[in-house]
Specification:
Layout: H1 6-20, H2 28-42, E1 46-53, E2 56-67, E3 72-73, E4 80-81, H3 86-99, H4 125-129, H5 157-162, H6 181-195, H7 199-211, E5 217-218, E6 232-235, E7 238-241, E8 255-257, H8 259-264, H9 267-270, H10 277-283, E9 313-320, E10 323-330, E11 335-341, H11 349-359
Antiparallel strand pairs: 1-2, 1-11, 2-3, 4-8, 5-8, 6-7, 9-10, 10-11
Length: 362
């Protein structure tokens, strides 16, 4: 057997240095101390994280307590509500139908849904995806909702929309960006109508099964879910059980998952297991308004705000109901971070935490 030449050895060393340049070695203890310090500062009972670098999991761990009344610890397999990260899954399903040629981003939503208020009918699929429709969000109304004529727990998906159907649009479609849940509730209904399948069935076929995400599903608070974390809120400095939203939040916030499963979600963007690269390029391109101005912070179901001057995309979830979550990916650095927590947090805080964890590896 021939020994490698000095030139070959030098080449391997240079290749290794180039391949790992810009990447920092991070010890598990360093992450543990950082995460535990933030949990104390933010008053988070339990948290689970996954860090993926170069498509390999380099850190996966649960911290703190999943259920304070039972003293049940968080593990990497503890189930959390993903909250609004659900929107990214819904956007992927919508783009899968676009890729299949079964709908177009420029189509009016009235092409697929009946019984809409007249003022909603010209709104396009793209405007729902980019939060530029002008439709009020039923989740953040600052006024009494429109009368529906039913008890809240008896609502259907159509009834949820009726809560905002009597209000005018907040702005002309395409005029500006305003994040809201009604947009993605409508998209979920379009996905079911066009696919001819339930949201969950289509989700499994096009996203979860190809990525091997076995512990992710569509659910609500009344279902019994093994290993599910309880959600908490801080009220006057005291930790309390969070309020419950007992109807199906559907395509805007109903998914639950684990850190193990969400570590696999990166594959929806770094491979072509789910969508083709040319379709993914549309998803992470900045949305545009009628004026031609770009929406700096959002694409098609993905947040695009840079972090420390570095390109990133992802989505946060939470803002109520006892959970705050984040998925963030830095394409140039090939780093993804998932943070799932069981406590209400101010908007964007858990997203910042996920980005800060990623920055430990820069």
């Amino acid at each position: 057997m021939r020994k490698p030449s000095i030139l070959a050895i030098v080449f391997v060393i240079l290749w290794y240095v180039m391949a790992t340049s810009g990447q920092r070695r991070v010890s598990k203890k360093e992450i543990d101390l950082f995460v535990q310090d933030k949990m104390r500062e933010y008053g988070i009972p339990g948290l689970s994280i996954a860090v993926v670098r170069d498509r390999k999991i380099v850190h996966l761990k649960g911290y703190g307590i999943a259920n304070l009344e039972l003293s049940a610890p968080v593990t990497e397999k503890t189930v959390f509500s993903l909250a609004s990260i659900t929107k990214t899954f819904t956007a992927i399903l919508t783009m899968a139908l676009v890729e299949d040629g079964r709908l177009s981003l420029g189509d009016p939503i009235s092409k697929y849904l009946s019984g809409l208020p007249e003022i909603w009918k010209p709104i396009t699929v793209r405007q729902l995806l980019t939060h530029t429709s002008g439709i009020p969000s039923f989740a953040t109304l600052d006024k009494d909702p429109c009368p529906v004529g039913k008890q809240f727990r008896d609502y259907t998906r159509e009834d949820v929309l009726k809560e905002v159907s009597c209000f005018p649009l907040e702005f002309a479609p395409g005029e500006r960006f305003a994040y809201g849940d009604t947009n993605y509730h409508l998209l979920g209904m379009i996905v079911e109508r066009v696919s001819g399948k339930s949201y969950e069935t289509f989700l499994h076929e096009r996203v979860l099964d190809p990525l091997g995400m076995k512990d992710t599903r569509n659910t609500n608070y009344v279902d019994l879910i093994p290993n599910r974390a309880n959600g908490y809120s801080l009220r006057n400095g005291v930790v309390k059980n969070a309020d419950r939203f007992e109807i199906d939040e559907f395509a805007n916030g109903s998914l639950i998952s684990t850190a193990v499963d969400m570590a696999k979600f990166e594959g929806a963007f770094t491979t072509e297991k789910v969508l083709k690269h040319k379709t993914l390029e549309q998803i992470w391109a900045n949305a545009r308004l009628n004026s031609g101005d770009i929406v700096l912070q959002y694409g098609l179901g993905l947040g695009l705000t840079p972090f420390r001057g570095r390109k990133r995309f992802g989505h946060n979830g939470g803002g109520g109901l006892g959970f705050a979550t984040s998925f963030t990916h830095f394409p140039a650095e090939k780093i993804s971070v998932v943070v799932l927590s069981n406590a209400d947090q101010p908007g964007g805080r858990i997203g910042d935490l996920a980005n800060e964890i990623a920055a430990l590896y820069f």
